[in-house]
Automatic annotation (TrEMBL):
One of its GO terms (biological process) is ribosomal large subunit assembly. The lineage of its organism: Eukaryota, Fungi, Dikarya, Basidiomycota, Agaricomycotina. Residues 323-339 have a biased composition (Acidic residues). It comes from the Eukaryota. This is Ribosome production factor 2 homolog. It comes from Leucocoprinus leucothites. Its main location: nucleus. Residues 1-13 have a biased composition (Basic residues). Belongs to the RPF2 family.
Amino acid sequence: MLRTVKPRNARSKRAMDARQPKEVEDPRTCVFVKGTHPGELVTNAMKELMALKRPNAIAFNKKNDIHPFDASSDSQASLEFWSNKNDASLFVVGQSTKKRPNGLTFVRMFDGRVLDMIEVVVDKFISMTEFKTPKSTPGNKPLLHFASDLFETHPRFSHLKSMLISFFNGETIESICLPGIEHVISISLSPTPPTLTTTTSTDLPNATTTPEDLTSLPKVHIRSYTIKLKASGTRIPKVELTPMGPFFDFSLRRHTPPDPELLKQSLKRPKLKKQDVEKGLGKKRKNMEVDEMGNLRGRVHVAKQDLSRLQTRKMKGLKAHFDDEDAMEEDEGEEDEMSEEKKRRVS
């Protein structure tokens, strides 16, 4: 169990408060860890992944005796210690052994504990330096494109999709500016073998997949392109993709699914504020909706009105107690006055 650290001064207290959970989380920091025998291919692949992850990336230059899937070792305790020390929620561990060569392990943390892990094999790697093309700005948020139905239906690829979204996802933004979209990362799969059966993502097994099942899974292809917007004569610009690198070909290996209770805690959402609910977030409110431009619109239903109580101009003839008999008497009085005036004029 991790010890509780109390702040000694105001500066350390502000630093600890900055690491507390937030409604809108900061970009995930990833730590790249080398195993005892990483190998040249794995080392170069980790450098290219770190280039895509910058500036939210930390590299450990020294080799570490760490085996995330080995339950008998203290590897998970080391990951939890590094996570709290560096305020990191992602790890990429590179290890290459005779039994499992060219392995990359993606580890995701929650609340200082290991949430889930997935291991892939680097089958092919093309460096970014081999493409003599413009590169994207470090720290720019990429577009992610998943080009296969298996990412929605198969549990192993759904798990991989969730891990890659957590890895490449940057700062949370409220709006998109087209000139600010500089590169796209396309993630596709090899042709699906006919023997592969697709199941729903809710059927995620509690144990790791056996090596016999891994032979039927297609390879994962990760490609990075820069985006160039050109005039098309219409409102929608013409989009051109230029290979930027790096290119990866991965094969799935071992994995550890998340603990159900820990996963339930990680998916909890904070209560929305009143101003957020009025903007249309959260639970839908009756007769209120948000249009495509983000404007809140509401419908007001008015009951049937009683026009007899409507306030009008205060005239004597419109008063309620002014009945027909009074009107006739007033008319007769006016006629008598007019006749008297005529008699006076004649005389």
